[in-house]
Amino acid sequence: MLRPSTSLPRRGQGPLWRNPTVRALIIQAVLFLILAIFIGYLVHNTLNNLEARGIQTGFGFLEGRAGFSIPQSLIDYTSDSSYGATFVVGLLNTLLVSALGIVAATLIGFAVGIARLSSNWLLARLATIYVEIFRNIPLLVQILFWYYAVLRALPSPRDSLSLFDLFFFNVRGVVMPDPQPLAGFSATLWALLIAVVATLLFARFAKRRQAATGQALPVYWIGAAVVIGVPLIVFVVSGAPLAWTLPELRGFNFRGGINILPELVALWLALSIYTAAFIAEIVRSGILSVSHGQTEAARSLSLPGSITLRKIVIPQAMRVIVPQMTSQYLNLIKNSSLATAIGYPDLVAVFAGTTLNQTGQAIEIIAMTMAVYLVISLTVSFLMNLYNARTLLKER
Amino acid sequence: MRHKNKSLSLLSAAALTALAASQAQAATLDNVKSNGEFKCGVSTGLTGFSSPDENGKWTGIDVEVCRAIAAAVLGDPTKVVFAPLTAKERFTALQSGEIDVLSRNTTWTATRDNSLGLNFTGVNFYDGQGFLVRKDLGIKSTKELDGASICVQAGTTTELNMADYFKANDMQFQQVAFDTSDQTAQGFDSGRCDVLTSDSSQLAALRLQLADPSSVEILPERISKEPLGPVVRQGDDQWFDIVKWTLFAMLDAEELGVTSQNVDQMRDNPPNPDVARLLGKDGNFGEQMGISNDWAYNIVKMVGNYGEMFDRTVGKDSPMGLERGINALWNQGGIQYAPPVR
């Protein structure tokens, strides 16, 4: 490192450019100035070119009427909504498929990663085959496979596969009853909140009790019972205040109920299964990074295998796993933009695709889209780093 | 570089080279002449309009417009580089100078003409939006489409017209939007949607790609006007005129009875002054645009007149077999009409 250090003998009255501190400052300032002018010129030039070619600029278009329909939106959206609304709809759809994908990929990835190290020969081989197949096929091919080869093989709406006449599976996706909360449903939500808080407090108590007495309580079972049971009882006692809109076949399609698009299912499956293969390898490497002495020590205490894995191996493996997991999550979020290949209405398809094409505001829209992915990625990265800091080896 | 200032001198030569590419290209004609070819944006594959045949040669009415421009400007219809573009890519490709002409079944609308920095040069095909359904649904009118799933190509005027039409008629629909017309047709074929919507000429083309073309029909209603034509960048009037008059020359040639068969004979012995002016025997109409005087002769000789082009690509001599309909000349019951060369 060529840094001016206080231990260097200071020159007395030398010329300024001989002074390393001043010289460094000047070089930095000149470089910064050149960069600023360069960027300024780029912006200026672009604006001039846009004006010279008669292309409108600015973000005013966001208030214009979109005029096109979007098959899935988590907020109220009609063709009368604004282009700004198409941005929100696309963003929420991207976040939805990313969140679903991250949860599923993590679950599958952990299961497969652990299975790969299992002493059960068949299980370990199956896990290896899974990883090698799904890691080595391009994601786009997998998305198209799930969409065209698997989901398109389902029957037409009239010949839907049905489950208790409540759930219907067909080429248009999954249709299921839609719950509409009535007055009094909030009691159930409050009960759920209270149950979760109570469980968390109970878990803390159990941990302290175990530290003090060595006796473990079945926290998971009791917690699960409370979180599911209490709201259920409140729900029944308050008279089941939910109105279910049942799907029924009328005309072309099912009316009523919630329709889960096959595009969402295909994208979700492909993203989860593909990313899970990488996560499995990360989990495996994390587990292998834990010194075998730890497992042996646990065995010599005659701890059962599941507790060894859960309380000794995985907590130590997490230190290796978490940072790599962050990049997999980021990859998954960015890969969700492949949605456009099968017509899932994500941010890229709806906003950077259709809206861009209808308005022609390429620069603004691409800039907004890039900013969104940057913000999402930085947020995920930040949260994962927080978690990483907590799982780091604490030296005392 | 109209906005030079002192700060420019600070920029390195490398940076200037990079920026030069983003400067407005005022003289497309000069570029085309010095390159000896020009770039034409077409669709990624739509029978009758622009699609590569089994030998990889592009065919279709939009493709022939590109060839006619090459014949007019360079005297050689093969000097065209075709750039296949999806609906979503097309305008950016033209704005950024990646292509010189967009000839890709693109509807002329106010927004596109006024705020995208583009100029529509004319109409090479008058179309209207229609709906394609399977016959076994027993539907006879678009008014019966309430609740249908509809496959459509993303980022088209079709999407907008459909939303407006269903709203105006107080009907519901579920839209399934795909990137290319191929994917859209595939979506319809596999049962993902009940209905396929597009310009009716495209429906006629897409129908040929379906597993069983006879099991489907196009509903009679047309819910929009879709004037399709070539587009150029705004701000280059000379190039704009050349593309516009290439189209007009093909129409005038048909009106005057000049075909690729008789064009030599017509030029040597013009039957009337109109033909003499069109084929460069009288006046300097080509030179006025900065190209050679036999521009129209080259177009008709090398590509043909409008009627020949229509019949060969989408009309009676093609697999699509469309009627001339409103695309007939103004004196034959249609609305195709070109200003005279004089």
Automatic annotation (TrEMBL), chain A:
Q: What keywords is this UniProt entry annotated with?
A: Amino-acid transport, Cell membrane, Membrane, Transmembrane, Transmembrane helix, Transport
Q: What is the annotated localization of this protein?
A: Cell inner membrane; Cell membrane
Q: What is its main location?
A: membrane
Any one Pfam family match given in the protein's UniProt record, by short name: BPD_transp_1
Q: Per its UniProt record, what Gene3D superfamilies does this chain match?
A: MetI-like
- Mind telling me which residue stretches traverse the membrane in this protein? 21-43, 87-115, 127-149, 182-206, 218-244, 264-283, 365-387
Q: Kindly provide the name given to this protein in its UniProt entry.
A: Amino acid ABC transporter permease
Origin organism of this chain? Salinicola endophyticus
Q: What is the lineage of its organism?
A: Bacteria, Pseudomonadati, Pseudomonadota, Gammaproteobacteria, Oceanospirillales
From TrEMBL, chain B:
Keywords from UniProt, A to Z, are: Signal, Transport
Domain of life of the organism encoding this protein: Bacteria
The record places domain Solute-binding protein family 3/N-terminal at: 37-266
Q: Which GO terms describe its biological process?
A: amino acid transport
Signal peptide range? 1-26
Q: Which PROSITE patterns match?
A: SBP_BACTERIAL_3 (PS01039)
Question: One Pfam family from the UniProt entry?
Answer: SBP_bac_3
- Tell me which family the UniProt entry assigns to this protein: Belongs to the bacterial solute-binding protein 3 family.
The name of this protein is Amino acid ABC transporter substrate-binding protein
